[in-house]
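Team,

Forwarding the record for the chain on the shared tracking sheet. I've put the sequence and predicted structure together so nobody has to dig through attachments.
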Amino acid sequence: MDYKDIERSIIKKFRKDIWCKFTKAVREYKLIEENDNIMVCISGGKDSFLLAKCIQELQRHSKIKFDAHFVVMNPGYTDYNKDMIIKNAEILNIPIEMFESNIFDVVASVDKSPCYLCAKMRRGYLYDKAKSLGCNKIALGHHFDDVIETILLSMLYGAEIRTMMPKLKSTNFKGLELIRPLYLVKEDSIKSWRDYNNLTFLNCACKFTEHCSEKVEDSKRLEMKNLVKELRKTNKNVDHNIFKALDNVNLNCVLGIKENGEYKSFLSRYDNRT
């Protein structure tokens, strides 16, 4: 299939489930604004490649003028995985820039917390790259299901109510902001777009997945995914309701809140109520 057909499928075939939800998130959360310089991070998976195409389409069709750099960080991919990313970028007509890092080599020499170290190093490399490109925003491919799973993980295993935010200012890199333009797009829609266009993407390029005992979060996310699937059998809108609950918090009916690291009990406001 020609890349133009793939682009048209986003605007036409998947207009309701992908394009409209993408543009709604961009508009409602003010993710992309005039004169932004955005580094779009491509990992090689379906989510980040769809994100790249959506941002390309937005550049073509939106009145908002902004720049975008499509960047792939190579942490030490096998030749097969690296070639697959390059091939998919060619198929999709995405002008990627790939830069090298030695993350996999460093992580391979660490016995304790390799996954934590890998994630930390990835963030550092990506922020440095964004700075070198003069970018003010970094776009990531997290989608609606990631948001729901994060909410449930926080409640059931972290004992707090929090979510993955649509945008986030960096605390360590001044002037940089993370944005998640696929925030409202469901994973099933992304899979449908992939399959409709007969595309094949990387699932996981990590060299240590099979041996790493720290992949607990991945298994817990799968647990949350399956939990939502079960709940949806009796309530088809359960994921939407979970999402809206974080946008509809009644502070009069919670035991306590935490703001900027400071905890406040409902008792601090209780005696002032009429």
